[in-house]
């Protein structure tokens, strides 16, 4: 719970997507699947795939640069990078992203919370700002899941895509639009094997689909209710709901559990797929671009992913700029 009058305020948003796109028809040529099968079960028509010459860090740097442009800033006090698909396990991507952006010797580090990474980074950044350790923070969520999934595994290959989203947070007050009003987060390590990627040990991402589906609905629903309780908001007062873009069935099920009209949920995965930690900032940019998200909207963000880890946050959407690009 956030109790201080001083908190983080959203000041700018940036995204970067790979130019490469793989649609369902292309996948159907190599896998036992079809466009109708994928759309019916996931809502995904295509996903962005970064080429071998585009790294997770490249996407992160481009999104971070765009967020700084959107906020009108050339400097920040810290950089937080959320990723579960780092280019290498050591060193962290944060210092490399900060250096590439010309941000000098600011503190920079990584957060690994899989699909909940953006909101985890938001919680950490709000804490740094609330305690006075930083004024302006650049937080970036960047993923390259195309290197983690088995190209022959229909269950995971159809889901995941690559991309990055970033936000600049500044110090402000709770009564400002864009202020982070409340955060709920949690984890359950007993579910560590439900979504698993051995990474450098070899092998591909594995996921216990049905159990993950049920856990995602359970925790995204309960976390949303807890963050609403912190704000004193009723579900009927939520104008815009921005869930992790895992698949359409999960988004619809969570909205149904919350008794929230489906048209209040932002859905942006049709042409990007599941971009894990980057999915929420990409959804925010999508919603702002098409008018689904409007200044003054009461908004809840929620996510669930490997760990198991989940998180939700509440804010009132501000008038901010968004800068997008492709790489």
From TrEMBL:
Instruction: Describe the location of the Beta-ketoacyl-[acyl-carrier-protein] synthase III N-terminal domain by residue ranges.
Output: 109-189
Domain Beta-ketoacyl-[acyl-carrier-protein] synthase III C-terminal per the UniProt entry, residue ranges: 228-317
InterPro entries cross-referenced by the UniProt entry = ACP_syn_III_C, ACP_syn_III_N, FabH, Thiolase-like
User: Which pathway is this protein engaged in?
Assistant: Lipid metabolism
Which key words tag this protein in UniProt?
Acyltransferase, Cytoplasm, Fatty acid biosynthesis, Fatty acid metabolism, Lipid biosynthesis, Lipid metabolism, Transferase
Question: SUPFAM superfamilies per the record?
Answer: Thiolase-like (SSF53901)
Q: Which PANTHER family match?
A: 3-OXOACYL-[ACYL-CARRIER-PROTEIN] SYNTHASE 3, BETA-KETOACYL-[ACYL-CARRIER-PROTEIN] SYNTHASE III
What NCBIfam families does the database record attribute to this sequence? fabH (TIGR00747), PRK09352.1 (NF006829)
Family the UniProt entry places it in? Belongs to the thiolase-like superfamily. FabH family.
Can you say what this protein is called?
A: Ketoacyl-ACP synthase III
């Amino acid at each position: 719970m956030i109790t201080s009058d001083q908190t983080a305020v959203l000041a700018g948003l940036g995204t970067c997507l790979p130019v490469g796109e793989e649609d369902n028809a292309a996948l159907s040529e190599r896998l036992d699947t079809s466009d109708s099968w994928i759309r019916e079960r996931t809502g995904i028509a295509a996903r962005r795939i970064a080429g071998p010459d585009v790294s997770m860090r490249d996407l992160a740097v481009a999104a971070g640069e765009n967020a700084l442009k959107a906020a009108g800033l050339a400097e920040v006090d810290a950089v937080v990078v959320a990723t579960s698909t780092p280019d290498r396990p050591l060193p962290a991507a944060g210092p490399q992203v900060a250096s590439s952006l010309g941000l000098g010797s600011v503190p920079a580090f990584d957060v690994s919370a899989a699909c909940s990474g953006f909101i985890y980074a938001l919680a950490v950044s709000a804490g740094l700002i609330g305690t006075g350790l930083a004024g302006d923070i650049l937080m970036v969520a960047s993923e390259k899941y195309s290197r983690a999934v088995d190209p022959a595994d229909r269950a995971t290959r159809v889901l995941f895509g690559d991309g990055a989203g970033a936000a600049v947070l500044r110090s402000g007050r709770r009564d400002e639009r864009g202020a982070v009003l409340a955060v709920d987060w949690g984890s359950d390590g007993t579910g560590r094997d439900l979504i698993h990627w051995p990474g450098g040990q070899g092998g591909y991402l594995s996921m216990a689909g049905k159990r993950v589906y049920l856990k995602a609905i359970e925790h995204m629903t309960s976390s949303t209710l807890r963050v609403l309780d912190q704000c004193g908001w009723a579900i009927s007062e939520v104008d815009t709901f921005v869930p992790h873009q895992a698949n359409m069935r999960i988004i619809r099920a969570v909205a149904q559990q919350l008794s929230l009209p489906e048209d209040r949920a932002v859905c942006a995965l049709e042409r990007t797929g599941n971009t894990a930690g980057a999915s929420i900032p990409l959804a925010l940019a999508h919603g702002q671009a098409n008018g689904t998200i409007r200044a003054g909207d009461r908004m809840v963000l929620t996510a669930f992913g490997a760990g198991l880890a989940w998180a939700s946050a509440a804010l009132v959407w501000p008038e901010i700029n968004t800068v997008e690009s492709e790489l």
